[in-house]
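User: My collaborator sent over this chain with a note saying "see what the structure looks like." That's all I know about it. Can you take a look?
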Amino acid sequence: MTSKETTETPNKKSEDKNSEPITQVQRDSVITREDLPAKPFRIGVTLVTLGALLLFFAFYFGIINV
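Assistant: Without extra context I'll predict from the sequence alone. Here is the result:
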């Protein structure tokens, strides 16, 4: 490795000089993929919600007349 390569790569410590350290509470409150419901369930809830909204607006604007 040449001296040019070492000067071009940023030093991680110098970048984080102005940032505050993460507390344990902040670290525990991060939502990870394991905390989320299963993907088929999320897609199903999204589709049902969109379907209900579309049905509501169809009745509201008179596209579906009952």
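A starting point for your reply to your collaborator: Residues 23-66 form one domain.
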